[in-house]
Design goal:
Length: 415
């Protein structure tokens, strides 16, 4: 019991400096993204996109991130974390200005792609930093808090949009995101840990993606499948809740409100999810996450109005909360010291493929069959992934080590 208490205090000490340097700046930027995500469907329809094309534009947000994950790895490996942060912020700003000016489907799609590419670089910069500075015994908590910050932004963003936007006016969402990128990045620069200057500016060895896959094929075939499944269900949820709201005749502000309440459920559970992950293992987090997200999709066609859709969205939100930070944590567990950015770039490509595949699958089913079939089809895929993780997911070695077997650096922090 004493060892667990010491490790708990050490985890708090390890995480505390990250609030000003990582979590709060990212909260600001995530708030902007949270304002944009629920209204992408409505922004696309505002430039006369069909329902299938509007869903595809949501998917482009994931496609841009996925396709730029590998180039992001090269950027971070070559320029280091801090210089890459400037590149990320500039790219997001350029894309969001394009979204504000878009008067056609194709310009909106291109602009969404550009801002998503910037988000890919920004996400890799933050994940590389956290995987480098968070000790293994606090990794689940550190990364679940990072996931929780994103979820907090998903609550604050839609609320902020509802407060400032006129009915069915989507432009304020992009403007909110633009301002949040500028403010959040400026905060990150000002709060930069000067003592970590060398680590944040250091280049890392660039390793070819195929070699990364070959050297870590077992990890990608087990934990990677879980990351892919969680990301697919999350991506589908982001597209389907607003699309189903539009299908039911609900307005953009109502859809944003439902999305905000769904994300609000997540706020009470993201840190406990990290504690569970550190104490009882990754399975104890990823299995309930996959199961609840799958059940939420299965229930989606049964909703027929604001109240029932809100109930389904709350189930999806609770499931998402149970997996707070799990994709990043699984990647950090497998990350090697040499070629860190290259490995994480491939890992993010693997997981972001799920984020992209979710809305694409939704769009294909809507276009070829019926919107009512989307939830059941994606839910069955999620249940299959849940069964695979229950059978094959392996826990990291440090979770099975007893306190006296831990290295001194893992028992407590220096000083």
């Amino acid at each position: 019991m004493r060892a667990n208490s010491d490790r708990g205090r050490s985890a708090a000490q390890a995480i505390r400096p990250l609030w000003m340097q990582v979590y709060l700046p990212n909260l600001v930027i995530s708030t902007g993204q949270g304002a944009m995500l629920p209204i992408l469907i409505y922004a696309a329809r505002g430039v006369h996109a069909s329902p299938a094309m509007a869903t595809a534009i949501v998917a482009i947000n994931g496609v841009g991130t996925m396709l730029f994950d590998l180039p992001a790895g090269q950027i971070v490996a070559r320029f280091g974390e801090w210089r890459s942060g400037w590149i990320a912020a500039g790219t997001m700003v350029a894309g969001l200005i394009g979204c504000l000016l878009a008067q056609s489907v194709w310009l909106l799609a291109a602009s969404v792609f550009v801002q998503a590419a910037g988000w890919a670089v920004w996400g890799l910069v933050r994940m590389t930093h956290l995987s480098r500075v968070a000790p293994p015994f606090a990794r689940g908590r550190a990364l679940s808090l990072f996931g929780g910050v994103i979820r907090t932004g998903n609550v604050l963003g839609p609320v902020l949009f509802v407060v400032v936007a006129r009915r069915d006016d989507t432009a304020p969402a992009f403007l909110i995101f633009l301002v949040c990128v500028v403010v959040g990045f400026a905060w990150a620069v000002l709060a930069r840990d000067r003592a970590d200057h060398a680590g944040g500016s250091r280049r890392s060895e660039q390793i070819h993606p195929l070699r990364v896959l070959r050297d870590h094929r077992r990890g990608f075939a087990t934990a990677g499948i879980g990351a892919l499944g969680v990301s697919l269900l999350r991506g589908s949820r982001t597209a389907m809740v607003p699309l189903w709201a539009a299908h039911l005749g609900l307005g953009s502000s109502t859809a944003a409100t439902i999305y905000a309440f769904s994300s609000l459920v997540e706020l009470g559970f993201f840190y406990p999810a990290g504690v569970v992950s550190d104490r009882w293992g990754r399975r104890a987090v990823i299995l309930p996450c996959l199961l609840l997200l799958s059940v939420g999709h299965l229930l989606l066609p049964l909703s027929h109005g604001f109240g029932t859709l809100l109930a389904v969205a709350l189930v999806l939100g609770f499931g998402n909360a149970m997996g707070s930070g799990i994709v990043m944590t699984l990647g950090a567990d497998l990350t090697p010291e040499v070629g860190r950015a290259s490995f994480l770039a491939v890992w993010r490509t693997f997981s972001d493929a799920g984020t992209t595949a979710g809305p694409l699958i939704d769009s294909a089913i809507v276009g070829l069959a019926s919107i009512a079939l989307v939830g059941p089809a994606v839910g069955v895929l999620g249940l299959a992934c849940t069964a695979a993780m229950a059978r094959w997911l392996e826990e990291p070695a440090h979770l099975s080590a007893r306190p006296h077997e831990l290295r001194p650096a893992e028992r407590s922090l220096p000083g």
